[in-house]
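Example 4.3 (complexes with small molecules)
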Amino acid sequence: MTKEVLRVEHLNKFYGDWQALHDISFTLHQGEVLTLLGPSGSGKSTLIRCLNGLEDFKSGAIYFKGQKVETNSKNWQELRQKIGMVFQSYDLFPNFTVLENILLAPVKVQKRPEEEVKTEALRLLKRVGLEKYVNSYPRELSGGQKQRIAIVRALAMHPEIMLFDEVTASLDPEMVRGVLQIVTDLSQVDHMTMIIVTHEMNFARQIADQVLFLENGKILENTPGEEFFKHPKTNRARGFLTSMDF
Amino acid sequence: MSWQIITQSLPIFLKAFELTLWLSAVGIICSIIVGILCSLVQYFKVPVLHQIITAYVELARNTPLLIQLFFLYYAFPVIGLKMSAQVCGIIGLVFLGGAYMAEGFTGGFAGVNSSQIDDGKALGMNNLQLARYVVFPQGFALSMPALTANVIFLIKETSIFSVIAIPELTNTALDLIGMYYRSNEYLLVLVIAYAIILIPVILLLNYLERKVRYGTFGD
Ligand SMILES: Nc1ncnc2c1ncn2[C@@H]1O[C@H](COP(=O)(O)OP(=O)(O)OP(=O)(O)O)[C@@H](O)[C@H]1O
Ligand SMILES: [Mg+2]
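Answer. The structure with adenosine-5'-triphosphate bound is encoded below.
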């Protein structure tokens, strides 16, 4: 049995009086990929943001590598160094070059030696095919390039888990494949533990070890990946897959 | 319109010009420093100081410089605090300008995209690092238009120094007109003198504004 990386127990989240997430529980093991699927507004972003403390929650618990997470800001700030996150908006810091964007957190937050991080940054940039943009500013890059660099920036922190929230949703179609390929490689080559929110069903089917299907803030299905796409248990999930042309 | 009147007045105007320039420069630089300090307090919500500065900004922005100067120059000596007219002028200008600058910077910080802040947090930054690497550089860029407007506003406000008898440009022009009744000539010189100060300042600030727009630096 592989090691448990993340466990969520009975998590409830409110925005004001309105409950956005209801009794969410799941477990994720090392090297596994969990995809969060569900219609717009079902709470996917809210859930993934709860997992690195960008949103607080009312009750329930999160366990990181078996340790219960103390949900104070100091502790989250420490923990976020081990939890990489990439967003839909692909905004790098516009006032820094590509290299500076990547070095910033490892050097200033983690206090690692700059030379070492730089070598690693160049290696990662090469891996995503963008080494020649090392001294460019974000505004000189396309959305897909920025998103690949945002992934590199998160990886340079040596995270133990990566969270992806619709990282291709705002990209032009021809950019999508390159970004998804990088995420796929992370799973297949590096065996990175990941939680992925996506509307790309082919990609989800290919990469998911486990699928959480959310609707109205509730988990309707928690199924092994292949199983979900072949034999969705609920009508809602069947309807969702149909609506996604799948 | 007589050229002779104009050329004869130039040495006096030159002195006044230097004084306006000097008072403006000192006033603006100090205002920017006060503004930055106040906006930092506001950003980090430093207890007690935060409330004091909120009150200060409201007070300074809602009273005319004229009244502030009268207070400094005529009322403070009554309680034993006597300062020269120029010191009063600069203090008054910085009291006013600091509040406007603080407001501008605070607005800039608040305008930084929340997704940028999420990015910084997700990278494990603490509040100080977030401020230093994300919010301030981008916030300053966003507050450049306000800064430009405030600088121009403060230069123009120095004309009010005439009420406490500082011999800056406006005061000098009014004096000369009072003595020689040649308003056309003196007003023309006055307008040109302000233009010589303001136009380069506007051009420079607009250039800086373009350079840092949207928090993008480096070209
Ligand atoms: N800050 C907020 N305050 C109040 N309500 C919010 C807030 N953020 C999200 N919501 C609400 O919570 C619900 C879930 O939103 P969320 O963004 O998590 O959905 P999602 O599944 O990610 O949708 P999408 O696929 O469109 O990204 C929505 O009804 C949304 O309107
Ligand atoms: Mg979302």
